[in-house]
Specification:
The protein is an alpha/beta fold. 29% of the residues lie in helices and 26% in strands. The strands form twelve sheets. Strands 5-4-1-6-11-8-12 form a seven-stranded mixed beta sheet, sandwiched between helices. The protein starts with a strand and ends with a helix. 46% of the residues are buried.
């Protein structure tokens, strides 16, 4: 059997470590990652290897050539343009001939028993097998769902916690028969996870998962590099490691740690556990290094380095303090007694002045560091700390890849500054910035839709707290795929556009009036609505706009009270108190609107996958996003489901046409109650989700988490995004039944998770 090592990726998330070296050449315990891969293949009797190259190919080629392939027959293919995981394998057809083969990533470390995995592959009669690893933090990986007999039933590519149904991740190690090449187009970019495997599932092709025992460490980020190093030092991986220097009495070295025989460590130095002092490193007297990886760098006396990575060629002068999570790339010089705050990254060749305190990352003299998304399509942080004008400029430059980009703000001084910086960044990189005078997020999303912006950013700032809302061309939060594309463009940097390609911002005036007109287009009635009385509570801009619209329609009312419904807009969504003073369940309002659309509108409606099951009983079958073809496209044209002002006007239309109050409309709906419960997990939430899946009581449908169909109702269980806990959402005819169902599933979770 032959092997293909995929080593062509850019390693964007690993920046700045990969700014001048490809990912497979990152050192783990003083050896490049790709060497561990070659040694694993050799251990299992595989001698013929083809390495696919892309980013900085000569660095890998020269290293392997100079070392005679470490005893293997190594050949190379080079991608002139990125071909994807499957496309790069397709380029190796001549090397493979008619043999079966293993595909393995050159940027991960593992000790899998490949011989046993190949035996299992043949035992299953598989033509294509994916090696799987049980990972406690699976968000950055593709998840694999399996049915009986190890047959693969589905995939979830880098999901949010909502999408985690198992902890089995795709390791990027595959065992194939030669006929797999028939499913890979020649000379075309193609990806196994995105293209080939889903197509094989659709053809009922024999595709299997093999859970490999042992240890697997991906080095996709600097933090995962440090964790991988710690796992190997702790003995979790059975690897052949370089011999460390002999122990010494004049330094303090806590086990497990590694000090190279080629390192020069002065007396009095303290090397904490899970630290690596690589070959060529010099460590001065009384330096303290904890849980850090130091390449061939010079560390001055009395330095204090905590939980960081420092690359070869760096000079860290005496008295420097480096906080946890810092990453210092090659040939950087940090002056005496400088301080790097936690989480700072420094790109290659930078100079930090003596005594300087650095609180933000430095890339080619530009402050960087991706702010990160706190919720779908949303960033949040402090003004001029997490979100600075410089970072917003870089965000705008990264967004320029989308072409026409909207930029609006809450029209406070801080928000205006950040939005202006963002627009300048869009223009500087050749994008087309579009701004308007609208001052609330839903209006910004709508204006983005009306002006054809592929992405629109709305900057809101209050008392120094900043939130940025990114929406797509339809006015919905940008997808996870778009988030990743933006992060990648931000991390890799952008080249300035020439002056003739820079666009001045397009300014749309009268944005609020355009929004009002669009919202009023959602009225679905010819009935005179001036007889209705509706009050609006709240003082946010959206509420003011809704009051103005209602006043123009003749149905506004200055204050609420018995007999008058009260509408309130919170975070863009509609909240309603009916004529009896009772707060309406938002799910009931959704049911009323969907029922009206099906009975008196287009006859079709789409809802989010986890919308109440009662909608089907109330209105007839609806399309659900993620389950039904065409649902997502239909949902994009239903702004009254995700914009509070649009929803208000649609609800008023229903009241006018039916002559019924909100309370009466709600009374006509089938009885249903929804409740939720959070269950803390002793171990890892991904392990708990897999344990539930393995019970056979839960269904892995196309929605978030796992589904449960019981005698009294329906429930869904999903992993919480920010803590080790699971959330249960139960829907039954009565609240008593819903609460009992929650308790039943809570007991199942506690029994399976220990």
């Amino acid at each position: 059997m032959k092997a293909i090592i995929m080593a062509g990726g850019f390693g964007t998330r690993l920046m700045p470590l990969t700014a001048e070296k490809p990912k497979p050449m990152i050192k783990i315990i003083d050896r490049p990652v790709i060497r561990y891969t070659l040694e694993l293949l050799k251990k299992h009797g595989i001698s013929d290897v083809c390495v696919t190259l892309g980013y900085l190919p000569d660095v890998i080629r020269d290293y392997l050539t100079e070392n005679d392939g470490f005893g293997l027959n190594v050949s190379f293919v080079t991608e002139d343009t990125p071909m994807g995981t499957a496309g790069s394998v397709g380029m190796c057809r001549e090397f493979l001939g008619s043999d079966g083969f293993i595909v393995i990533s050159g940027d991960a470390v593992c000790d899998f028993d490949l011989t046993a995995c190949v035996h299992r592959h043949r035992e299953l009669g598989s033509k294509a097998s994916i090696l799987l690893y049980s990972h406690p933090e699976p968000l950055e990986y593709g998840l694999v769902l399996m049915g009986s007999g190890s047959r693969i039933t589905g995939f979830a590519e880098k999901p949010s916690w909502d999408g985690v149904k198992t902890n089995l991740v795709n390791t990027g190690i595959y065992i194939f028969s030669n006929e797999i090449l028939c499913h890979i187009p020649e000379n075309e970019p193609c990806d196994f996870g995105r293209d080939v495997f889903p197509a094989l599932l659709g053809e009922n092709y024999p595709l299997y998962g093999i859970e490999a025992g042992g240890c697997w460490c991906d080095i996709g980020s600097p933090e995962s590099c440090r964790k991988c190093t710690g796992d190997i030092l702790s003995g979790k991986a059975r690897l052949s490691l370089p011999a460390p220097a002999p122990g010494r009495d004049d330094i303090t070295a806590t086990h497990p740690s590694y000090i190279s025989p080629d390192a020069d460590v002065a007396p009095g130095a303290v090397i904490g556990g899970h630290s690596v002092i690589g070959g060529g490193c010099v460590v001065g007297r009384n330096a303290v290094i904890r849980e850090s990886v130091i390449g061939g760098a010079e560390i001055g006396e009395n330095c204090n380095i905590d939980g960081s990575i420092i690359s070869s060629g760096c000079q860290i002068r005496p008295g420097v303090k480096i906080g946890e999570g810092c990453v210092i790339a090659e040939n950087t010089v940090i002056g005496d007694h400088a301080v790097l705050m936690p989480g700072v990254s420094v790109w290659p060749g930078q100079r930090i002045m003596p005594g300087e305190t650095v609180g933000r990352s430095i890339v080619s003299d530009t402050l960087r560091g991706f702010p990160g998304f706190t919720a779908p399509g949303k960033m949040a942080g402090k003004y001029c700390y997490a979100l600075t004008p410089e970072k917003c400029f870089d965000l705008g430059a990264a967004c320029a890849v989308f072409g026409r980009v909207g930029a609006n703000s809450s029209q406070t001084p801080g928000a205006d500054t950040l939005a202006a910086s963002f627009s300048c960044g869009v223009s500087s990189a050749g994008g087309i910035p579009v701004a308007s005078d609208i001052d609330f997020p839903e209006g910004s999303a709508c204006l983005g839709r009306l002006t054809g912006a592929a992405v629109t950013a709305f900057f809101a700032e209050k008392d120094g707290d900043v939130t940025v809302y990114f929406t797509d061309r339809y006015g919905l939060p940008i997808s996870r795929e778009t988030e990743r594309k933006l992060e990648s463009a931000f991390s890799s940097g952008t080249n300035p556009a020439p002056p003739e390609s820079a666009y001045a911002p397009i300014t749309v005036t009268g944005g609020t009036e355009l929004y009002k007109a669009a919202a009023m287009g959602n009225l679905m009635t010819d009935t005179d609505i001036s007889r209705l009385r509706v009050s609006v509570a709240g003082d946010v801009p959206e509420c003011s706009v809704l009051r103005e619209i209602l006043a123009s329609l003749g149905c506004g009312h200055n204050s609420g009270g018995f007999g008058v419904p009260v509408f309130e807009l919170r975070d863009g969504y509609l909240r309603v108190r009916d004529e009896r003073g009772k707060t309406a369940d938002p799910r009931q309002i959704m049911c009323i609107l969907i029922k009206s659309e099906i009975e008196h509108g287009s006859g079709r409606a789409a809802v989010p996958f986890d919308a109440p099951q009662a909608i089907d009983e109330a209105a007839g079958p609806v399309l659900r996003i993620g389950r039904d073809e065409g649902a997502e496209e239909l949902y994009r044209n239903e702004p009254w489901l995700w914009d509070g002002i649009f929803a208000s006007l649609r609800l008023i239309s229903v009241m006018a046409d039916t002559g019924k109050s909100i309370g009466q409309l709600a009374d006509e709906l089938p009885d249903f109650a929804v409740t939720s419960r959070e269950v803390a997990i002793k171990g890892k939430r991904s392990d708990a989700m897999r344990a539930l899946s393995d019970t056979g009581s839960f269904e892995s449908d196309s929605g978030p988490g796992l589904a449960y169909n019981g005698e009294t109702g329906f429930a869904r269980v999903r992993a919480m995004p920010n803590r080790e806990a699971l959330r249960i959402d139960a829907e039954c005819a009565t609240m008593e039944d819903a609460e009992e169902l929650c308790l039943k599933i809570r007991d199942m979770i506690e029994n399976t998770s220990g």
